[in-house]
């Protein structure tokens, strides 16, 4: 009885050692290869193997009007390989700050998982219990700004020259379809489908599982047809994907980092970026998001202190001037009042109650009825100086929106005021979030 027991324990110990050793070895290899940035490991091997196909810069753009082009999203159409920032944008803007913190905390163990498990975990944390309408709002008003800023100009030129454009991606289709169809006029988007229950996402992928690009391409076009142009990264999986096309081109890591050739200039955006929403003004990489959470306690204290100082500084007074202001943020009238060192009255349309309470200057609501609003503003001008933002809504980008000319009929002395603001962490305005946090965020 002793001998079989000893043999059994030796075999069990050897198996345990092999499993632990292999697991630690795989974890070390993953950390060394792509570490904390949560990139697609299938797109990282440009330095490990030479591409089998020419660079995308070699693709001719002439006479492509009847061609069909297919490509991937991350690491190809976008210059960045990492998809973590875009999941963080959905978690923070569509979910809550607590969901965003949970996603950031998951980075501590995500790097030891393989690509499929990592993506499934990120999908679950980001989408479990998320309202479908919130995801639609983020897809329409938040993500396009960050996608445009990360767009690969060389790949887009090829995409724009073709008559038909299809994008394949393993990330959830709902995260990219709105941007691709509205801004890039893509004809078809094939991505991972998510399971829903009523008005909510469950956080699980559909029965078909995560999308495998080369299989999805065959299913989309059929076995007898090939798209004309395929663009991918230099990884093995992407080369398998684009090898199913008549012409195949790759995007190397060095080309993506070359801003002079791959970065899309703002004046060449396929569609002007005028309106966008969301609170985050930076691309939330893991490290940048960590800095944000570390800053928040101090930032809240600093915001309250600044509001208190702003209230105490406004002391002097004179009457009768109408200031017409560009509307970059909710606080433009406050900054104007501080700069002039005198109290002003600001007319507003949809200011939150909290903003009215903490405002260091007087605020008066308008009704959007031209006659009534004109009478209200005339009365206010007889009492003192008045500031109005005729565009009626804030605009973060340098564009002049359609505005009301009512102000031109109210006063003989009109002072135009231009505001220019730059933010690095949070936007001071939001359309779909909590407006009461606008002053604190700015």
How would you portray this structure in words?
The chain has 442 residues and is α/β, with parallel strands linked by helices. It contains 18 helices and twelve strands. The chain has helices at 2-34, 84-95, 97-105, 107-110, 115-127, 132-141, 143-149, 153-161, 177-183, 213-221, 236-242, 253-257, 259-262, 286-313, 332-340, 353-358, 370-383, 438-441; strands at 68-71, 164-172, 188-192, 194-197, 200-205, 229-233, 247-251, 322-325, 345-348, 362-365, 386-388, 414-417. The chain has a five-stranded parallel sheet with strand order 3-2-1-6-7, sandwiched between helices. Helix 9 (177-183) links the parallel strand 2 (164-172) and strand 3.
Question: Key features?
Answer:
13% strand, alpha/beta, five-stranded parallel sheet, 442 residues
Task: Summarize it.
The protein is built from 18 helices and 12 strands.
List the helices and strands and how they pair.
Layout: H1 2-34, E1 68-71, H2 84-95, H3 97-105, H4 107-110, H5 115-127, H6 132-141, H7 143-149, H8 153-161, E2 164-172, H9 177-183, E3 188-192, E4 194-197, E5 200-205, H10 213-221, E6 229-233, H11 236-242, E7 247-251, H12 253-257, H13 259-262, H14 286-313, E8 322-325, H15 332-340, E9 345-348, H16 353-358, E10 362-365, H17 370-383, E11 386-388, E12 414-417, H18 438-441
Parallel strand pairs: 1-2, 1-6, 2-3, 6-7, 8-11, 8-12, 9-10, 9-11
Antiparallel strand pairs: 4-5
């Amino acid at each position: 009885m002793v001998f079989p027991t000893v043999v059994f324990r030796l075999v069990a110990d050897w198996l345990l050692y092999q499993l632990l050793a292999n697991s630690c070895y795989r974890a070390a290899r993953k950390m060394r290869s792509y570490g904390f940035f949560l990139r697609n490991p299938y797109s990282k091997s440009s330095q490990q193997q030479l591409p089998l196909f020419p660079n995308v810069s070699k693709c001719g753009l002439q006479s492509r009007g009847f061609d069909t082009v297919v490509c991937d999203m991350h690491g190809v159409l976008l210059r960045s390989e990492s998809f973590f920032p875009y999941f963080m944008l959905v978690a923070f803007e569509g979910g809550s700050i607590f969901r965003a913190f949970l996603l950031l905390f998951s980075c501590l163990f995500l790097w030891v998982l393989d690509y499929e498990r990592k993506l499934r975990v990120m999908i679950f944390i980001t989408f479990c219990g998320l309202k479908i309408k919130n995801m639609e709002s983020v897809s329409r008003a938040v993500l396009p700004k960050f996608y445009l800023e990360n767009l690969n100009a060389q790949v887009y030129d090829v995409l724009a020259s073709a008559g038909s454009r299809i994008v394949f991606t393993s990330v959830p289709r709902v995260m990219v379809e709105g941007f691709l169809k509205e801004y890039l006029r893509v004809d078809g988007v094939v991505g991972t489908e998510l399971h829903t229950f009523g008005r909510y996402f469950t956080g699980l992928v559909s029965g078909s599982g995560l999308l495998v690009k080369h299989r999805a391409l065959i299913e989309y076009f059929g076995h007898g047809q090939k798209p004309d142009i395929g663009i991918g990264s230099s990884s093995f999986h992407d080369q398998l994907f684009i090898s199913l096309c008549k012409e195949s081109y790759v995007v190397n890591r060095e080309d993506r980092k070359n801003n002079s050739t791959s970065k899309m200039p703002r004046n060449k955006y396929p569609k002007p970026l005028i309106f966008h929403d969301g609170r985050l003004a930076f691309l939330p990489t893991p490290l940048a998001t960590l800095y944000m959470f570390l800053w928040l306690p101090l930032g809240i204290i600093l915001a309250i202190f600044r509001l208190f100082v702003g209230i105490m500084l406004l002391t002097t007074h004179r009457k009768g001037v109408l200031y017409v202001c560009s509307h970059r943020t909710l606080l433009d009238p406050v900054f104007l009042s501080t700069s002039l060192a005198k109290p002003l009255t600001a007319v507003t349309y949809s200011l939150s109650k909290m903003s009215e309470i903490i405002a260091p200057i007087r605020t008066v609501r308008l009704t959007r009825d031209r006659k009534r609003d004109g009478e209200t503003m005339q009365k206010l001008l007889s009492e003192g100086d008045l500031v109005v933002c005729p565009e009626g809504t804030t605009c973060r980008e340098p564009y002049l929106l359609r505005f009301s000319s009512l102000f031109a009929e109210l006063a003989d002395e009109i002072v135009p005021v231009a505001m220019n603001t730059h933010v690095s962490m949070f936007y001071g305005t939001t359309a779909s979030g909590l407006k009461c946090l606008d002053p604190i965020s700015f």
